[in-house]
Amino acid sequence: ALEYYHRCECIRVTVLGESHPSYATTLFAIGAVYSYSKEYVKALEYYRQCERIRATVLGKSHPDYATTLNSIGFAYYNKGEYVKALKFYRKCEQIQATVLGESHPNYATTLNDIGLVYDNIGEHSK
Predict the structure, then answer these.
(1) Residue-level pLDDT at 101
(2) Rounded-to-integer distance, Cα 67 and Cα 63, Å
(3) How far apart are CA 54 and CA 100, in angstroms?
(4) Which of these, 5, 11, 84, 106, could form a disulfide with 76 (CB 3.0-4.6 Å)?
């Protein structure tokens, strides 16, 4: 998958530029592959690039921006960096509550992710 995503990345950055949403989507996909491969440092590198583009182009209240924040939180969670994970999950939660609503499945997933962090840091009553 990475070979094809990187080829796509080269084309999109050349044709569309570094600030295009489709380029950000490719960066996100590369980050996801690294995350699935448990290479969280590399995943974070791509997710953070995607985050910067989506914040600028789509805005910080866009659902895709929230998804990026959730994925960053997931990478930090898997690295055992729970405080950082919680920071990104909370930002994601706020956006999703406002934009998608508190009955949306993605919002529920983010709440579950926050619960996992609290469980891992021993704050079971939260």
Answers:
(1) 98
(2) 6
(3) 17
(4) 84
Beta strand segments in 1-116, E = none
3-state helix, strand, coil in the chain (%, to 5): 80, 0, 20
Handedness of CA 100, 60, 63, 40 (dihedral sign): negative
Q: What are phi and psi of 101, to 5 degrees?
A: 95, 155
- Calculate the average pLDDT of the chain: 97
Q: Please indicate, yes or no, whether the overall pTM of this predicted structure exceeds 0.85.
A: yes
Please state, in angstroms and rounded to a whole number, the distance separating the CA atoms of residues 40 and 100: 28
| CA atoms of 75 and 59, how far apart (whole Å) | 22
